[in-house]
Amino acid sequence: MTGTLAFGTADTVLGRLLVGETETGIVSLHFRDTPAARERVARAAGLPVVDAPDRLAPALSALSDYFAGDLKSFDLPIDWRLTSDVQRQVLTTLYETVPYGRTLTYGELGDRSGTGVHAQVIGQVMGSNPIPLVVPCHRVVAATGIGGYSGGSGVEVKRWLLTLEGSLPATLDWDITRAP
User: Fold this and answer.
1) Which residues, in sequence order, are CB contacts of 78 under 8 Å at separation 6+?
2) Whole-angstrom Cα distance, residue 146 to residue 151?
3) Spatial CB neighbours of 68, under 8 Å, sequence gap ≥ 6
4) How many CB atoms lie within 10 A of CB 74?
5) pLDDT band, very low/low/confident/very high, at 140 (cuts 50, 70, 90)
6) Has residue 174 got a pLDDT over 70?
7) How far apart are CA 99 and CA 107, in angstroms?
8) Residues 41, 167: contact at Cβ < 8 Å?
9) 75: helix, coil or strand?
10) Cα–Cα distances in Å, from 121 out to 74, 115, 132, 175?
11) Residue 26: which of 51, 8, 13 has the closest Cα?
12) DSSP SS3 for 140
């Protein structure tokens, strides 16, 4: 593969997010900026790391706008190289068809994606999503409740994101201005 990988960070209410981007588009997003996370992405992408702040500016600005409540749709190029064919099909379907403020179940996403995989496998695809938030796996819920979430500190982050987007009502003991 040719190309390069650049990293940038966005300070948010959920902490410092690490974004990886190639010339093609965003390839990764981690809820914590650590040397180990950077190393894993660089190794998986198989690309040399460069300093390219201009490349990352649109993605970092979009994340800032999202957390401020000013962005309802990420219109950013995606580099799917860290996904398998089935993951790509499911995640592309999610990215292109589930807008801000909407949710669907794992089973519904399996049906919509045309992959024919069961809800449990869709859950595994969501858990391995290399680009959470931008590819909104938090919008996929269980048929019987909110379901799990492997991003950040877990299901409380999912609940916070869904409340931010208006998919879940704020509860009396939940303050949307306070991150988990």
Assistant:
1) 24, 25, 26, 95, 131, 134, 135
2) 14
3) none
4) 20
5) very high
6) no
7) 17
8) no
9) coil
10) 25, 10, 17, 33
11) 8
12) strand
Residue 79 tokens, joined:
């580099």
What pLDDT shows up at residue 152?
83
Active site residues: 137
pTM greater than 0.85: yes
**Taking a C-beta distance cutoff of 8 angstroms, is the pair 137, 153 a contact?**
no
Distance CA 12, CA 132 (A): 14
Q: Which of 81, 58, 51 is nearest to 134 (CA)?
A: 58
Q: Which residues contact 140 (CB under 8 A, 6 or more apart)?
A: 94, 98, 103, 104, 105, 106, 109, 122, 123, 126, 147
Place of tokens 């800032």: 64
Identify the DSSP state of 11: E
**What is the C-alpha to C-alpha distance for residues 41 and 44, in angstroms, rounded to an integer?**
5
Please give the biggest Cα pair distance in the chain: 52
> CA dihedral in degrees (153, 159, 163, 165; nearest 10)?
80
Q: Which DSSP category does 115 fall into?
A: -
Q: What does the block give as tokens for 77? A: 């190029």
Residue 47 structure tokens: 């690309």
Q: End-to-end CA distance of the chain: give it in Å, rounded.
A: 39
